[in-house]
Design goal:
By secondary structure, the protein is of the alpha+beta class. It is built from 18 helices and 18 strands. The strands form 2 sheets. Strands 3, 4, 5, 6, 11, 12, 13, 14, 15 and 16 form a 10-stranded mixed β-sheet that branches. The structure holds flavin-adenine dinucleotide.
């Protein structure tokens, strides 16, 4: 990994083929695809990788069962196809998860309709999904998930999609982009665009959010906006205020596994409005989500409030009658904005497409909408468009997309047939860590798990020393996050490289100081900066607990801490 001074020098001195704005899954995917095709790439992200929607999803790699109801078969086919590509090229990050779809007397669709839908879902995956669906009798559903409401249960369906860690998928995608010479510039905020005399966009202007200094001018033949829900904020000033998006907010809440012990993800229908929700097993925890509400606040201030939490708890308490959870039982929440494409004012009746690559100005394209699941395909289409444009500028290009066959770095030596539990046993034996730690390291880092333990040893840390006693995260992950995975702040490590922020009952407050102690020497922090990191992390936790203030709209608790 380049250090920050080198990143800055690269940004200033290189004429890039493509500058990608936004380090969520979309931008990271584009940077990797473009770098694999041999383009000179800069990825510019104003915060940490995946700090926006890409660490706030439902963490599913799925075909999208809900599209079947609307007969959007093309979208389901696209999703199931990309699901199988990811299972092959990143099996540690796209792991099969069994789902139960319970069917009650009051359900919209009866057993026959659900069975037909399930058959179609398998058919659209060309019957190559991990396993085909199976219809269940009420007693079978009860046996598999004893907590689930059994009154008026008519049947159930068992089917498979995949579970991921959205933040880690984004980071690993960016790591591979960097391995193919892309310059990954996190904590650089794009503040404007370079323009030629004819008005073409010739790159961007960016400021260093962490250490200040003069703005950087980044030259690029093509600039791609991959700013997710920030798209309008970024492009509004340069495109006469055109509105590209109609974002909606979605939140999730986390409960301990002993309160909601699940072995399958359960498809629920919200008691208030019939929307589809999920309750999902998550190691020592379970989570419930998501909501879908219009939200006028900036994506920088997207938080769960008490109304969001009540909405989810109402449904969870209905379907799991013994749960009786209140907001006090909620371990943590997360919230994000869907970057949904607004209807084109010229064609308001058009059905909104899942994603779209848009020509904004000469030299500037934007990609909007989409899903985590289809990020590889979105990136392929965006880079194809970049190449058409660079071609017309007379550059020499190699047009073949390689992402459909090139595994992510953690997938070296693995594919969808790899037995991850057996592999974890090997990791446990080889590195002397407990089995649950080995499984976590394998799921999060794949074949890089050994390198994590080695980074810890070099920093004088015992391989199996846990960050929090009842979770499998280990201190060795902290130096690895800094030296290999672009972590720059305490929040990056506790919220996205590990999931301590979401899974620990204390949300990592007690371990923030030691995290800062381990990161500081690697990043040259003085005492003041170290303390600022710990304070800022506390404010982040406080913000995420805004839902505890009954009836109040969620607002950040504290102003962000200045770091420069
Ligand atoms: C509640 C919810 C649940 C979801 N569940 C699923 C799911 O289970 N499966 C699935 O496939 N999809 C799911 N999605 C959709 C998926 O999460 C998103 O489509 C995807 O994460 C969007 O990624 P992105 O990179 O486009 O946006 P983001 O991840 O938001 O990235 C945009 C980035 O741009 C950066 N940026 C903005 N402005 C600037 C600037 N001026 N300079 C530099 N950087 C800038 C931001 O900091 C941000 O990191 C879900 C979405 C939501 C909201």
């Amino acid at each position: 990994m380049l250090d920050r001074a080198q990143v800055r020098r690269n940004l200033e001195s290189t004429s890039f083929d493509v500058a990608v704005v936004g380090g969520g899954i979309t931008g990271a995917g584009i940077a990797r695809d473009a770098a694999l095709r041999g383009l000179r790439v800069a990825l510019i992200e104003k915060g940490d990788l995946a700090r926006g929607t890409s660490s706030a999803s439902s963490k599913l790699i799925h075909g999208g069962l809900r599209y079947l109801e609307q007969l959007e078969l093309g979208l389901v086919r696209e999703g199931t196809r990309e699901r199988s590509v990811l299972m092959k090229l990143a099996p540690h990050l796209a792991r099969p998860l069994p789902f139960i779809f319970p069917i009650y007397r009051s359900s919209r669709a009866g057993p026959l309709k659900v069975a037909a839908g399930m058959w179609l879902y398998d058919a659209l995956a060309v019957f190559k999904n991990y396993r085909s669906h199976q219809m269940l009798r009420p007693r079978q559903v009860q046996r598999l998930e004893p907590m689930l409401l059994s009154d008026e249960l008519r049947a159930g369906a068992l089917y498979y999609d995949c579970m991921t860690d959205d933040g880690r998928l984004t980071v690993e995608t960016a790591v591979d982009a960097a391995a193919h010479e892309a310059t990954i510039a996190t904590y650089f905020q794009v503040t404007g665009f370079r323009r030629s005399a004819s008005g073409s966009v010739t790159g961007v202007l960016a400021k260093d959010v962490l250490s200040g200094g003069a703005p950087v001018e980044i030259k690029a033949k093509i600039t791609v906006s991959a700013a997710g829900p920030w798209t309008d904020e970024l492009l509004g000033p340069i495109s006469n205020g055109r509105v590209y998006l109609r974002p909606t907010k979605g939140i999730h809440l986390v409960l301990t596994r002993d309160r909601l012990p699940l072995d399958h993800a359960i498809v629920l229908t919200a008691v208030r409005d019939g929307r589809v929700l999920f309750a999902i097993p998550w190691g020592q925890r379970s989570y419930v989500g998501t909501t879908d509400t219009d939200d006028p606040s900036s994506p920088d201030r997207c938080l769960a409030d008490s109304l969001d939490v009540d909405y989810l708890l109402d449904t969870a308490n209905h379907y799991f009658p013994r749960l009786r959870a209140t907001p006090d039982d909620v371990v943590s929440t997360w919230a994000g904005l869907r970057p949904l494409i607004a209807a084109d004012p010229a064609h308001p009746s058009d059905v909104s497409r899942e994603h779209e690559v848009l020509d904004v100005l000469p030299g500037l394209i934007a990609i909007a909408g989409g899903k985590l699941t289809t990020y590889r395909l979105m990136a392929e289409q965006a880079v194809d468009r970049v190449l058409v444009k660079i071609g017309s500028l007379g550059g020499a290009i190699d047009p073949r997309c390689r992402t459909e066959t090139t595994p992510l770095p953690g997938a070296q030596g693995m594919d969808e047939r790899t037995d991850l539990v057996a592999r974890a046993r090997d990791v446990a034996r080889e590195h002397g860590v407990p089995q649950d730690v080995a499984e976590h390291l394998l799921h999060a880092y794949g074949a890089r798990a050994g390198a994590v333990v080695r980074a810890g040893r070099e920093a004088g840390l015992a391989p199996g020393e846990r960050i929090v006693s009842d979770l499998p995260y280990v201190w060795a992950e902290v130096p690895f996050a800094v030296t290999n995975d672009f972590a720059r702040r305490v929040e990056d490590v506790l919220r996205r490289r590990t999931l301590v922020f979401l899974k620990d009952r204390d949300q990592g407050l007690r371990v923030a100081a030691r995290t800062a102690d381990l990161m500081g020497p690697l990043l040259g922090w003085d005492d003041e900066r170290r303390q600022a990191e710990v304070t800022s992390y506390g404010a982040l936790v406080e913000d995420s607990r805004a839902f505890r203030k009954k009836g109040e709209p969620a607002r950040p608790a504290q102003a962000p801490v200045r770091l420069d």
